[in-house]
Design a protein that fits this description.
The protein has about 70 residues and is mainly alpha-helical. The protein is built from two helices and no strands. Helix 1 (about 5-30) packs antiparallel against helix 2.
């Protein structure tokens, strides 16, 4: 991973996967996916807060690395 372009690509892929996973958590929280979260023993609002923060951070990291200009040198 000495190549900066490889590191950038890996971080873009990882943050995109994080965005998808956190989006699924939010869809479950909002009731759009048929998953019963009441049986997990976790308060519903905690799942919403964790999913929301996770989604915002992953989108911010993805946007940063997609807009970051290439550094040649």
């Amino acid at each position: 991973m000495d190549n900066p372009q490889t590191k950038r690509t890996v971080l873009i892929i990882a943050s995109a996967v994080d965005a998808v996973l956190s989006g699924i958590v939010l869809l479950i929280y909002f009731g759009l996916l048929p998953v019963d979260i009441s049986s997990w023993g976790i308060p519903r609002w905690v799942i919403g807060v964790v999913g929301g923060i996770w989604f915002v951070i992953s989108i911010a990291v993805l946007a940063y690395f997609l807009t970051k200009s290439d550094v040649s040198g």
